[in-house]
Design brief:
Glutaredoxin, 213 residues, alpha+beta
Length: 213
């Protein structure tokens, strides 16, 4: 496989999933950074590569663009099969995909910059009524958005408190130690999800030591 081009952001958990896979496969690639908080992913040059303006994005040697971390990882596993990333048995592969989608679909979005920005924008609209396509009517959009943002701030405060107890900053903290402090009673079966959530919170606090949630 010729050299690949990986467009990514170093604090993006979706990006480091792909970097981990590339390293495990010992595949060489060109690293092209885009700082999301500086808006570099929305610059015309990158939008010409990936109109979605998201990371990660992998450009193959023939110019083909692949996006979405799990799709990229599965492509790498199929085109560079050693060492394999998925178990040999069907049930094992299904379990890995289940756990991966729990993170990608259920945990990651609530830490996503676009989602947080959208929640703040919707909250600013005030107490308007929402008629969603699915589920009950929402009589107060601002209150619903505020509740989601308040929950995130509550979780951030728990992580900050854990950092204070451990006498360490977010950038230097060990995910396992903070997870023990914040999710001490979590079921071992979902410990991985708790650690992923803590890692996302630590990444946020590293970038915004005194910032808003």
């Amino acid at each position: 496989m010729s050299e690949l081009i990986l467009h990514n952001y170093y604090r993006s958990s979706t990006s480091y999933r792909v970097r981990i896979a590339l390293e495990m496969k010992a595949l060489s690639y060109q690293y092209v950074p885009h700082h999301l908080r500086h808006g570099e992913h929305l610059e015309p040059a990158y939008l010409a590569v990936n109109p979605q303006g998201l990371v990660p994005a992998l450009v193959l040697d023939d110019g083909t663009l692949l996006t979405q971390s799990l799709a990229i990882i599965e492509y790498l596993d199929e085109t560079a099969p050693e060492p394999p990333l998925l178990p040999k048995d069907a049930l094992g592969r299904a379990r890995v995909r289940m756990l991966s989608q729990m993170i990608a679909c259920d945990i990651h979005p609530v830490n996503n910059l676009r989602v947080l920005t959208s929640l703040r924008a919707l909250r600013a609209l005030g107490p308007c009524r929402v008629l969603p396509a699915h589920g009950p009517d929402l009589p107060d959009l601002a209150a619903v958005c505020g509740a989601y943002l308040a929950h995130r701030e509550e979780r951030l405060e728990q992580v900050r408190a854990a950092l204070a107890t451990l006498h360490v900053g977010a950038a230097a903290a060990e995910v396992a130690a903070v997870t023990d402090a914040v999710y001490g009673d979590v079921d071992g079966a979902v410990r991985f999800a708790a650690e992923h959530s803590v890692a996302a919170q630590l990444a946020y606090l590293s970038a915004h030591p005194a910032g808003q949630a």
